[in-house]
Amino acid sequence: AGVTAKEFSCKIMPRFQAKAEKVLADNHVKEEPIYSFDHAGPHDAAEAVEMLEQRGITQDKQSRLELPSLSPDFHRVIEHVHAIASKAFNAKLRVTEGRRTVQEYKKMYEAAFYGAVHAPSVQADIKGLKELWVHVKKPTTAGGSDGNWPATRML
Length: 155
Known about the structure:
Layout: H1 5-26, E1 35-37, H2 41-44, H3 46-54, E2 64-66, H4 76-95, H5 102-116, H6 119-127, H7 129-137
Parallel strand pairs: 1-2
Helix pairs in contact: 1-3, 4-5
């Protein structure tokens, strides 16, 4: 089970939006942030869409970027870091014995997460996003993926 629409609406998105606005303000950026969402259930649920609209995040204001369906690859930085961190966390679990508290597990995962974040890999992920966008938006008849998962070579 993943994040529910209620958790996304009531917990995750308000915190994320506040953090984004703080970073922009701290760096004297005047532009509004653009939020991108794939079509995961919690993002598309009626209560989530309503909450986003109440917070001023709408497509007509161009503050909500709709990604093609089945496109977590556009969030490749997060997806790659999570995959690397999960692998490191699971490896650590296999070599440690005994029961742990939830807090200990959180600390272990946090260490794995921060150990997975490296500027060169993040920059490489970002660098390929434009090419990926063009490929996914193209129809399959023109060599693209018509809004679906791209070929593995693109990931």
